[in-house]
Structures are given as structure tokens and as C-alpha cells.
Design brief:
Chain lengths: 123, 387, 387, 123
């Protein structure tokens, strides 16, 4: 009952998200469920995610998780996306169990982005 | 957290700080009259006198006889005692009870308990502005209706019900009339010598008195069954050692209120207008409750397509409420706002600003910009809807 | 009245003053954490943390898990919740309940209420020294006995029951065991991790904490039905805005007690012995309660052929009790003393001296001479019996 | 509930009864009821109550009432005893209604004293 529902990471990512926005001419994944909406947009160069940006409508955990994903995968090879697991984010952001469904929306968005990149590169 | 440093407290409907005069009175009683008012010695009688004086103070605020007041631990207990105690005492009159969907949980849950015990409850809906039309109320009354309970001032929206009109209908139908006055007593004029009310609950901590003490007004001759049993205090209707300092604090808060209410209301109305003017042009803003005539200490607004929890966090260091004051932790959309016709999505974005005696114009200014910025920020973060 | 000037307060079993550390803690909370612990903002969470800290303090005193504690308005409410809530939740187990004749009214009256609802109560008598023999208790248990409630330390006589022995018997018979600990918690060591107790009531104002707040210990897995309905606070078992300052005060009082109990008990025993030595040779004096092993803060004595009300007045400026602490106004002879085998005449002359942390040896000296003088004076006034 | 059950007169008479005691060789009335015991003793000279003393076992109101009777009738003609009414005492001492029975014991004692004096003077 008493603990702050938001840990410092959530508070920081929510207050100052450095990866919020669009990627002009990039490729995007989008997913919507549980009343949440998340969009991830990437600029892919040489199999690497050069830029990753998010837009999100949802609770602070969802917004912070989207920011976390961007921080995590920017600069990574595209293949890393496949290894995305919600577990680490759930832990880093201390997401309460009852919000698991919302974070899965993020997983779906990451998948959606992965597929979009695939479609782009395999004609 | 940095934000913890300077909270801007705009949650006076949840609870208020102690008025300095109340705190001082309580300290005096704690050091010189901490005795058990039931004790059969002069020290005990000293404390009993303190209790009597507090009853006179509260009675003056409500314009009633001091003997018509029972001390309780708060409005929750008063509501329980009034509704359970009233309904059970009058079971012979029938098992039909009337209340509203926009009541506080401390009323709703009591009726739910009675429902399980075989009582039948009419849960009346308000109009879109939150008010209960008198005709709707009267139409709900049946021959076996024996008790009605209506919230005077809604804790989420500030909507004010027509207690006088509703009470008159109760009188003409021999229906016991309980009013949850937790948000009205000590905050707006309440003249129980003239209002047709049989039972009224109140709690000190909503008007600058101490937490943990409240009262139930019981009109002369109104039968209620006790819900606790014990040492015989308070005519056996509510036993337990009287917390003489808390009662003195409640009395003092009542006395302060008696002299401040008019000034307070002007102060609140000015600030509420400042707040409303500052935010009303925000796109998609929706005011929940009465446009005019509501309690000026509360402004409840929803806003389209903004997520409530994020809004609340973005509003820090403002301390404001979403959902009900008294158990805001629940994530369910407010049933009060649902009853006003709001969708779940609309209800979840609702913010209740509640102002008080210490609120300043500078704080309101801060609240205005915080609100505008928060809505803008969250909208900027959000993706377009599915394309 | 001159006598009002310098009361010698020897009525600590009725209520105690606030310990200065408790008062200070409460003031700090009142000014910096007066928020509603249920509010969904950081200020509310600050208050919730205060409540949690208090739970840890009280839990340490009782050696229990903090989550096993419910906050109430005092022992009266705790007793009601435990006994009504326990008995109703276990109605399927049977309708037979066991208690004693020497219980406090806040227990007696609850059982009376249950009796009216069709429960059957075994009202056990104590031995002449006030104790309940284990065999008598066990013999009273039947297959359909589902709950027993026993007062730990008697408020009138200081008699201490064998909670461990009684509890063990309850466990072996699947009987829910409630203990009214209003006069023991915070005053003598109570280790609920080792005592076989399911429910224990306590109240802060008996051990230098604030009035209007108490707690109910509910052992893990003990089912009780709520007796009040409302905002869902405290796992729906006891709703109502938590009085954060009172709870902090209760926690602090528990913490002070944890560090003071042993010293307090030595202090009280020394003063009680001084008092007893000073008056025991008064002709016709009779000690009510245990000669040894009783709670040292209470000394209850009757005296032959002296009228109680006159004795009390003649004892001024001593503040002492006749009859029960909690509702001494009643003129009926104490049922506790009647159960110890005292006649009405003997019972009415009984005076309870109850001592506390602030009691001094000088006050005891004063009490001794006041008592001796008062008895002598009243005997000098009295005519011989009918000649 | 709150008021002092004893008014200043009761407190004064109870604290410092100036008419408590015996009258050596005097005439006495005694009555016992309601658990109260009251004795009034008088020295009668020339049809006048020269000295009047009480002894009492009872609550403060009874003791104060006995003192009040002594103060009232000392120096008065014996015949005044017949006019004794509890009403004035009940009022002066603010005796609560539920104690009426106890004050009537005093009335009975006064009667008893009156009879004793009568027996003494009419041989
Ligand atoms: C309308 C209303 N009724 C009842 C209550 C319950 O009061 P308390 O928590 O003091 O028991 C509250 C607030 O808490 C309220 O706003
Ligand atoms: C043994 C006992 N139980 C219960 C109570 C009731 O406590 P409270 O008046 O704080 O509710 C008291 C004293 O008042 C007591 O002495």
C-alpha cells in the first residue's frame, strides 16, 4: 500500500524520455490493446537499428517501458529484437504483476516492428 | 524524489490539516483534561465538561440540541450506525430502502451488506449534472420504503443535493431520512433545525478537525439500534471511552467553521473560478458535475484521450485525486462519474481538484500551468490512433 | 472547588496521559503527514508510510507480523469486531461461546447481544482470587463451542489469567480464542508469537497513547466478518479514513512500552507494595484479587462498614475509581467483585487504586494517609448499629 | 453526566460537619433503611432544642442532610420538628431524585426523635 508505485527508473524515463518521437522515413511497428497504444519507429542501417523512437498512450509503466526498449535496442543489430523478453523490463521498472498484460502490448509492438523491418529488407 | 519537497496540496476533500486553533485546543485538553469522562471523580467530570462544551459547539454549527449528537470515530462509522441501526430498528415498516448510485462507498457498501441480508435497495441515478430530481425520488418510494440515505455534497464532484426537498418528501411518506454530511458539515451552512433530516453523519477531518472522530446527529425520537456494545457510554448507542481531546478538537473545528464558513466559501469560489478559467479552453476538457450551484471547493474535470495514471504522475508536485477521495488506490473507473454518463475512458482521466482554507492564488496558478503542461506532454507522447 | 487544584491521579487503569514522546510524534505527523493514507499521490503515500511504521512498532511490542494488525477506534470496537465478527464467521461450527463473569462490559455486552441472536453463552465464574482454573474452562467446552473470550488482566482487580494455558486448551478443541488485552498490551510483556491466541484487542490510551485508537491482532488465517462497511480500507475488514496521527501515536506508545515495560513494572510493584503496607492494617480491610501474581499497577481494596460514595468524596483530591473504570457512573455494585464472592455491601466500598509511570512515592504516601483518614472519619460519623 | 453530583453546600457540610456526634444524656431518634443509618440526638430545654447532633452512615447527601437538619433545628422549639419537610433539604442540597428514598430515612429519623421527645415530656 505504501510504496511508491513508480521506481526511480520509471520516474526518470517518464519525466524525461529521450527517445520519444517519430523517425522520418523510418519503419514502424504499432500495437494497440488493453486500452494502450504503442508505436515504435526505427531507422535501420546495415542491419543495425540506428535510431529508435517511441510514441505511447498508456500508464507511466508503459511509457517508461517504451523508452527502455528504445534505449536498449538503439545501436543493436536488428536480430537482437528477436531476443526481446519482457522479463528484464518488468524487473528494471518494477512493473506490478497486474500490469503484465500492458507490457505484453509492448512485446507485440516490438514483434510488429521486427516484422516490418523484415518485410522491408526481404522484398 | 525532488517532487516530494514542495507538495501543492489540492486534496482537501480527502482530508484537511488541523486548524491551528483546533491543534491548540487539543493540546490543552491533552495536558490538563486527559481523564476518562466516565470516571466518577472530579478529574473525570472535568473531562466530561470538555465533552459537553464540544457538543455545544457542534450543536451551534448545526443548530440542534447538543443531546442529539453521538460521537463516533468518523463518517464511515456514523453512516454504518445510521443506516444499519435505522434500517434494523424499523424493519417492521418494510424492507425497502432508497439511495443513489453516486453515494460514497461508506454508504454504498452498507446498503450492499443490507441487500445480502434481504433488504431491497433502490439505487437511483442522478441527472447528467449529478442532481437527483425530486420527482424521481418520490416515484421510487413505496409503501414499504422505510429509510433513504442521500449524500449532501458529493465528494468527487461537489454536486449538492436538494436535502430540503428530498427530506420533505421523506417526511410525508414516513421514511427515515439519513444524510451523509461528511463533505457538507463545517463546509457549508447546515441548519438542522430547519432541514427535514432525521440522521446526519459527519467527520471532523474534512473541516480542519482531527482524524478519528465524527458525529451522528440523531433527531429527537429517531429510533436506531446500536451496532457496538460495551460500557454503556452515550446512552448505550455508541460505547467506548470518549476520546476527549478529539471531541474537543471536533468542537473547536465546528466553532471555527461557524465563524468562517461564509468567508471560506467566497475564498474557495474565487480560487475555483481562477482554476476553471485557467484550464477550461484545454481541448477536450469536460467538467464533471454541476456548472453552477455546486460546492465551490471541488472542481472535477476529465479530458479526452489522456491516460489518468500518467496524468496524475505528470501533475506532480500537485496532490490531487482521481476516483474517490477515500480509497483512490483502486484502479476502477469512478462509479460516480459512470453514473453521470461518462465512459470508462472519460472517467479514468478525471482529476478532482479540491481546495481549502490555506489554498492560495499562487498555488492555483501553478495548478493551471501544471495541468496544461501535463495534458500537452502526454498528447505529444501519444501516437495517432490506428491508421 | 479547592480540591480541583491538585488532583492526585491514581486512575491510570481508566486512562493515561500521553507520553511526551507520543505527543511529540503526533504533532510531527499532524503538521507534516496529515494526508489521507489512501490517497493516490506522494503525500498520501507519505502518510501510508507513517501507518506502516506504526504497524512495525506495534508488531514489535507484540512479536507479531505487522500485517496481522487492524486499526480500530479502541478496545471496545476491537472486542466487538473480534467477538461478533469471529462468532458469525464460524456459526457453522456451533453456537456455543465461552467467557467469564468478570469480563469488561465491552465483552459482556457483546455476548449479551449474541445471546439475543440465539447464541448460547457459558458465563464462567472465577475462583475466589479471580482466576479461572484451567479444568473449569476445559470442562465448559462442548463439541459446538466455537469461540472463547477471556480478559487478560482484569481492569478492576488486576487479576491475570493464564492465557497460555487457556489458549492451549482452545487450540486442542478448535475453539477460536479472543483475548481482551486492553489492560495488558503495552503494560506487561505479551508475546503473541508464542501465546496461542487468535485475536487480541488493545487500546492506546491505557498505555500512554492517544484516545480514540486501538488495534485488533488477527492471527494469520483467522476468519472474521467485518462489522462496518465502507471504503475498502484495511482489507475491507475495517473501513474508514485511517487517523494517521493517532496510529503514529499508538505506534510510538508501543515503542516506548517495548523499552519501558520492565522498568515500569518494577516501579509499579514498589509503589503498590508501599500502598498496601500503608493501609493493610486498617480494620476490616479486604483485598480484592490475587495476593500475588496480579498486575502491580492495580490495588483494589474493600473495607467493612464504610459507604462507598462517601469514601470516594472523602478521598478527594485523590482520583481513584469505584466499580468499573470505564463506566464508573453507574451505582450498581461491581459484578466483577460480586463474582469474587463479595456481598453488595462489601463491593460498594471497593476502591481501585491504579498507578502509572508518573506516580510518585510521595503521592502514595498522600494516598495512604488520605485513605486512613477517610475511613476513620466516616466511621466516626456513623452511629452504632441498631441497639 | 458532567455536573458535580455534590453542590457546594453538600461539600461543605460533608467536609466539616459541625453537628456530628452524641449528646450526653440527651434524647435520640434512630432510623435505618435503604442501607442508610441515621441517629439524631437532642438536648431539650424548656421546649427548645438546645443542642442537636447527628450520626450517619450513608452517602454524602445523607450525611450533609443530617448536618442540615441539625443546623436548622438547633435553637428551635420542639414543635418545629413537626413541620419538617424534606423538600427544602432536597432543594438546598440538590439531591438527585433517585436518592429521595434516602432522604425520607432522615424524615423518619426526625419523626422518631419527635416521638422520643414526646415520650420524655408526657410521662
Ligand atoms: C462523502 C463521504 N462520506 C463518508 C466518508 C468517510 O469518512 P471517514 O473516512 O472519516 O470515515 C467520506 C470521506 O472519507 C466522504 O467523503
Ligand atoms: C479490560 C478492558 N476492555 C475494554 C476496554 C474498552 O476500551 P476503550 O474504552 O478504549 O474502547 C477497557 C477500558 O476502557 C478495559 O479496561
Amino acid at each position: 500500500m505504501t510504496t511508491d508505485p513508480f521506481n526511480t527508473t520509471v520516474r526518470e524515463y517518464f519525466a524525461n524520455p529521450s527517445h520519444c518521437g517519430e523517425v522520418a522515413g523510418g519503419v514502424a511497428g504499432y500495437f494497440e490493446d488493453h486500452g494502450m497504444r504503442i508505436r515504435l519507429a526505427a531507422e535501420v542501417r546495415d542491419g543495425t537499428i540506428a535510431r529508435l523512437r517511441f510514441q505511447a498512450w498508456g500508464c507511466p509503466h508503459v511509457i517508461a517501458a517504451a523508452e527502455a526498449v528504445c534505449r536498449r535496442f538503439e545501436g543493436q543489430p536488428v536480430s537482437a529484437l528477436e531476443q526481446f523478453k519482457t522479463g528484464q523490463i518488468m524487473e528494471d521498472l518494477a512493473v506490478p504483476v497486474e500490469k503484465t498484460g500492458r507490457i505484453l502490448v509492448l512485446e507485440d509492438t516490438v514483434r510488429s516492428l521486427g516484422r516490418a523491418i523484415e518485410n522491408l529488407t526481404t522484398p | 524524489m525532488v517532487t516530494n519537497a514542495d507538495p501543492v496540496y489540492l486534496d482537501y476533500a480527502a482530508t484537511t490539516p488541523l486548524d491551528p486553533r483546533v491543534a491548540e485546543r487539543m493540546r490543552a485538553v491533552q495536558s490538563s483534561a486527559y481523564f476518562n469522562p466516565a470516571s466518577n471523580h472530579f478529574a473525570g467530570r472535568l473531562s466530561a465538561t470538555v465533552v459537553d462544551e464540544a457538543a455545544v459547539q457542534l450543536a451551534a454549527l448545526l443548530n440542534v440540541d447538543p443531546t442529539s449528537l453521538l460521537w463516533t470515530s468518523g463518517a464511515t462509522e456514523s453512516n454504518n450506525l445510521a443506516i444499519l441501526g435505522g434500517a434494523k430498528q424499523r424493519e417492521h415498516r418494510g424492507k425497502h430502502l432508497v439511495t443513489m448510485r453516486t453515494e460514497h462507498k461508506a454508504v454504498v457498501d452498507v446498503f450492499r451488506a443490507l441487500e445480502k441480508q434481504g433488504f431491497e435497495i433502490a439505487w437511483l441515478a442522478p441527472d447528467a449534472d449529478g442532481r437527483l430530481p425530486l420527482e424521481r425520488f418520490e416515484a421510487a418510494l413505496r409503501d414499504d420504503t422505510q429509510l433513504a440515505s442521500i449524500l449532501h455534497i458529493n465528494n468527487e464532484t461537489g454536486v449538492v443535493q436538494d436535502i430540503e426537498g428530498l427530506g420533505a418528501i421523506c417526511r410525508s411518506h414516513d421514511v427515515l431520512f439519513h444524510v451523509d454530511g461528511a463533505q457538507s458539515a463545517g463546509k457549508v451552512p447546515v441548519d438542522l433545525a430547519h432541514l427535514p433530516v432525521d440522521l446526519m453523519s459527519l467527520t471532523a477531518h474534512k473541516f480542519y478537525g482531527p482524524k478519528g472522530v465524527g458525529a451522528l446527529f440523531v433527531a429527537d425520537g429517531t429510533p436506531i439500534a446500536p451496532q457496538m456494545f460495551g460500557g454503556g457510554q452515550q446512552r448505550r448507542l455508541r460505547p467506548g471511552t470518549l476520546p476527549v481531546d478529539l471531541i474537543a478538537g471536533l468542537g473547536e473545528a465546528a466553532s471555527v467553521a461557524s465563524s468562517c464558513i461564509d468567508k471560506d466559501l467566497l475564498h474557495l469560489a474565487a480560487l475555483r473560478d481562477q482554476l476553471w478559467k485557467g484550464i477550461r479552453d484545454v481541448e477536450g476538457l469536460q467538467r464533471n458535475g454541476q456548472d453552477r450551484g455546486g460546492y465551490p471547493g471541488i472542481l472535477n474535470v476529465g479530458v479526452q484521450d489522456v491516460e489518468g495514471e500518467s496524468l496524475l504522475l505528470a501533475l506532480e508536485p500537485l496532490c490531487v485525486a482521481t476516483g474517490s477521495a477515500c480509497n483512490s488506490r483502486s484502479q476502477e473507473p469512478s462509479s460516480v462519474l459512470r453514473a453521470l454518463g461518462r465512459s470508462d475512458l472519460e472517467a479514468q482521466s478525471a482529476i478532482r481538484f479540491s481546495l481549502g482554507r490555506q489554498t492560495t492564488s499562487a498555488e492555483i496558478e501553478l495548478a493551471v500551468s501544471a495541468y496544461r503542461n501535463a495534458v500537452k506532454k502526454l498528447r505529444d507522447l501519444a501516437p495517432e490512433r490506428v491508421r
